[in-house]
């Protein structure tokens, strides 16, 4: 998977490694935007409108992350793969399995679990990228900050919805 060109200060092996890490992150970012939209369409119950409206800005934020990751791949001379097949081929994380209309609590719990893996993978990427390319690492760090922010929203919403014993 040789890049089309090299950026100054990076050799072929390093560029290829960076692009590989970013491609994996791009695949999950693309998948996450689809999962969030799926949840947006299928949440139900008393908290429907709050959760429904909370999800769309995160869909946009994750799509923007994917765009930023794809453009970094291109900047490094790589070719960003954004197809459904590339999501499957690059999957190193657990699948999201909640389907159909479900109550908001079930969707939030499933999304929180998904985000735990998502945030961990983005963190691992920026740690690995720190040694290879600080620019790409900084991009991933910014993504983690946004993902953690939304994770806080979901957890806070769920805490308020959970009856105390």
TrEMBL record:
<feature type="domain" description="Ferritin/DPS">
    <location>
        <begin position="21"/>
        <end position="158"/>
    </location>
</feature>
<dbReference type="InterPro" id="IPR008331">
    <property type="entry name" value="Ferritin_DPS_dom"/>
</dbReference>
<dbReference type="InterPro" id="IPR002177">
    <property type="entry name" value="DPS_DNA-bd"/>
</dbReference>
<dbReference type="InterPro" id="IPR009078">
    <property type="entry name" value="Ferritin-like_SF"/>
</dbReference>
<dbReference type="Pfam" id="PF00210">
    <property type="entry name" value="Ferritin"/>
</dbReference>
<protein>
    <submittedName>
        <fullName>Ferritin-like protein</fullName>
    </submittedName>
</protein>
<dbReference type="InterPro" id="IPR023188">
    <property type="entry name" value="DPS_DNA-bd_CS"/>
</dbReference>
<dbReference type="GO" id="GO:0008199">
    <property type="term" value="F:ferric iron binding"/>
</dbReference>
<comment type="similarity">
    <text>Belongs to the Dps family.</text>
</comment>
<dbReference type="GO" id="GO:0016722">
    <property type="term" value="F:oxidoreductase activity, acting on metal ions"/>
</dbReference>
<dbReference type="InterPro" id="IPR012347">
    <property type="entry name" value="Ferritin-like"/>
</dbReference>
């Amino acid at each position: 998977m040789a890049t089309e060109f090299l950026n100054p200060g990076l050799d072929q092996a390093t560029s290829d490694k960076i692009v590989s890490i970013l491609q994996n992150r791009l695949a999950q970012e693309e998948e996450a935007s689809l999962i969030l939209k799926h949840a947006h369409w299928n949440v139900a119950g008393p908290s429907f409108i709050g959760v429904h409206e909370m999800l769309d800005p995160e869909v946009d934020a994750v799509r923007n992350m994917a765009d930023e990751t794809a453009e970094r791949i291109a900047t490094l001379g790589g070719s960003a793969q954004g197809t459904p097949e590339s999501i499957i081929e690059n999957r190193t994380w657990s699948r999201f399995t909640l389907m159909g209309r479900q109550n908001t609590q079930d969707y939030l719990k499933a999304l929180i679990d998904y985000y735990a893996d998502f945030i961990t993978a983005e963190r691992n990427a920026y740690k690995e990228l720190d040694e290879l390319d600080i620019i790409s690492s900084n991009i991933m760090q910014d993504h983690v900050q946004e993902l953690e922010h939304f994770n806080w929203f979901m957890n806070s919403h769920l805490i308020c919805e959970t009856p105390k014993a």
